[in-house]
Hints:
Blueprint: H1 8-11, H2 17-25, H3 34-47, H4 52-65, H5 71-74, H6 79-86, H7 95-115, H8 118-123, E1 131-132, H9 146-157, H10 165-174, E2 178-179, H11 186-191
Parallel strand pairs: 1-2
Amino acid sequence: MNKTRCAWLQYSGYPADFYIAYHDEEWGVPVHDDRLLFEFLILEGAQAGLSWVTILKKRDNYRKAYDNFDPAKVAKYDDAKQQELLQNAGIVRNRLKVAASIGNAKAFLEVQKEFGSFDKYIWGFVGGKTTQNSWKSLKELPATTQESDIMSKDLKKRGFKFVGSTICYAFMQATGMVNDHTTDCFRYKEIG
């Protein structure tokens, strides 16, 4: 039986099983695990200027290259490790993005110290619960919101990089801070 899914899958040009699985099993599911939140933060930043499917294809390589996104380990990466990452064809080899990922790990640890967990901090931008949107079509989905603007500004103030409002909103969508499955998608009610 064919299921109705969000239209962005059709427009991606990649009807690959892994992309459908990402939509069906992961996108929009509330994430409260700090390690996974850090992973999404780094991957969303890496995506800047690229397609999300490009990053998803490289996700396993990122996990290997970044010690499974352990922020304590990433925060300790030195120049040699940074050069190693820049030579790794399995990830996006952008000097600014690699440097930002290390700086973001340090900022992430500071947020954990201050709030007890990154989860507590980041979910505070939506009052601790998923915002249930009710978009009927892809055209209605915003690229940014007031919440993503505020989140971006606060993250930047704390030293994070590659956290513009559009990236923050994509992060919010991916980690289930907002339910942006369109109302005709079978996942809309499952997540709601």
